[in-house]
Automatic annotation (TrEMBL):
GO molecular function terms attached to this record: 4 iron, 4 sulfur cluster binding; formate dehydrogenase (NAD+) activity; molybdenum ion binding; molybdopterin cofactor binding
One Pfam family matching this protein: Molydop_binding
Protein name as it appears in the record: FdhF/YdeP family oxidoreductase
Domain Molybdopterin oxidoreductase: 125-499
Cofactor(s) essential for the protein: [4Fe-4S] cluster; Mo-bis(molybdopterin guanine dinucleotide)
Species the sequence originates in: Hyunsoonleella flava
Keyword hit for Transport: no
Amino acid sequence: MSKSPIDKALTPEKFEALKIKKPPTNSAGIGGVKAATSHAVKYIKPSNILKITQNLNQKGGFDCPGCAWPDPDDDRSSLGEYCENGLKAMAEEMQNKLINRDFFASHSVDELAELSDFEIGKSGRLAEPMYLPEGATHYQPISWEDAFNKVGEHLNALDHPDEAVFYTSGRTTNEAAFLYQLFVREYGTSNLPDCSNMCHEASGSALSETLGIGKGSVTLDDLYKAELVMVVGQNPATNHPRMLSALEKTKKNGGKIIAINPLPEVGLMKFTDPQNPIKMLTGGTKLSDVFVPITINGDVAFFKALLLKLLEKEEETGGVFDKTFIEEYTSGLDDFISDLKTYDFETCLKASGVSKDIFDAVLDLVLKKKKIIICWAMGLTQHENAVDNIRELVNLLLLKGSIGKEGAGTCPVRGHSNVQGDRTVGIWESAPQAFLDKIEAKYGFKPSPKHGYSVIESIKAMYEKKARVFFGLGGNFISAVPDTAYSAQALAHCNLTVHVSTKLNRSHLVTGQEALILPCLGRAEKDYQKTGVQTQSVENSMGIVSSTRGVLEPCSESLMSEVAVVCGIAHATLKHKSKIDWLAYKDDYNLVRDDIAEVVSGFENYNTKIQQPSGFYLPNGARIRKFNTKTGKANFTKNKLPNWQLKDDELVMMTIRSHDQFNTTIYGLDDRYRGVFNERRIVFMNREDMKQRGLQEQDIVNLKSEYNGVIREANNFKVVGYDIPKNCCATYFPETNVLVPLDSFAHTAKTPASKSVRITVEPVH
């Protein structure tokens, strides 16, 4: 009997051999070198390892397909501009094993679904296009021409273009992303959900409202010169390890660092640069001056408590607020102060879960410092009040005048390598009308002004059969989105699901009536087209656009670039109706960049600028105190405390990554920095909470969440005692995405609330 879509979407409930060790007190160093080397040697052809390490993130080389942390503008390390997890990413994408028609003939979709996510990912690189006919059990080969025509036939058979959904992951380059959104808009819809919807949409919403640009305002040089860096809801050692080198420079230059997070992440405590022999011998650099073990979603409460004390000191002695900056550049101070005074300090501090001693240590640093940077990631953005979280951080920076000056500002740290660039060049379901007008002026068709589906809206539309075709340009959609069971059923309602990918993932196993897997080149591979090897470009977390050019020969002759795939599908779908010569773009990517230069602000003379070895900075108003908001100034905001009222048996769960993971890609089964080895089905719990429930280490439990009367379950997890605040727990995703309600998301941003899920923990007897 065939497995259901839900069975295929959920990770198998099997255990490995869990081992628990005491977490280390130092990050990177010898351990990082060993881990990176072992992955490279195991999965990459020996002849390719040197080429990869010499060219990864180097000027004239290729951009890491992992995180979006920026490269230095000046000289780059001759020992390599990459980290442990960057090399793991390359070992995943450039793995030496290929899978083609023989592999799929030997493994049915149901059989593949029984594998763990780690096993699926390590099956090998996809080597040729594959097609799953309606009712079939096995994928079978298909030519590129037939695949493109299949997509075109399905799209043209829909009653309306809005019945198609076009998803984008953050690994897509600027050139591919621009053409993709252009095709989708000429096809007739704005349904362009992307991974921004699930991670930093709340940052974009909050920053656009308060500072006039949905991006951070700092550069790497600012981090080096900051007097105080606050790292909030973030685990750099795992998610963007090269950030630790920048924080080490902050410390070297006399800056202080505050880490605010429910878990005491090792990477923010101490860092040993694996490229510095002296540091390796002497034991590294202590990073955090103060660690703040905040309760999950206690951030607004904590920052409001800080703001109350800053206000108190300002009214007592003065000199705390930057009044010159506030008067010239901000709006809404009086309303903000009036609202702030309605809150009680003790209530806010208690709601944050932070002790008075730790709070006072933070307050002392904030009072003394004038150049403050606040960095954050998904620990702040994946809550129902995520936008409030970010706005409250901005309030603090505005009071201190720490926006638009050297060594100060906002630093949202993006995840995937080009997620910010994709949005910049038009991957947006709610693009501004000014951008759509430029599209119309350039190409002669009128894009739909109607806002399209975000990720959450796309899932609902597919579930309700309002959308019948799903197209994914990169990513692992089913493992990334919330409410796994509901989302799997939504995809199964489609007539056709299509994924452009480098390797096998679980989304290829949760299909519509028909399915296509279209294999594309990896970032490190040469992109041969009629005019020669092509150069592409990406944008990092700090708004720098730089070139990326592969150095390895493609692992299969049957691969296409993402640009070529988009052009082929656009040509097959729109045919003679199109006003655009799609196949010309495929032959010469310079033509794509010429068009971007005309349509997207900040990209003038793109083909010339992209030749600069370090790339070029895009305009950033907040960086120069030009605030493109409705008031023309930076805006103070009023933000409420979240209303958490847990039942006696409830905990607040946040989903997190292991150290052997990037987004939904599982590199291995170890979480070295948390002392967990060879297992992912675990739940980190406060030991007092364990005692209250009669639980011991490695007891097996089932997890349940209830939201608006709907109960969701994730079974078979092992309990691990950990230093996490009471009434809080943490689990890995995608294993517990099934517990995240689809209807629980950030206001005005619709980012899933994956970091604040109410659950109960029930022992398995």
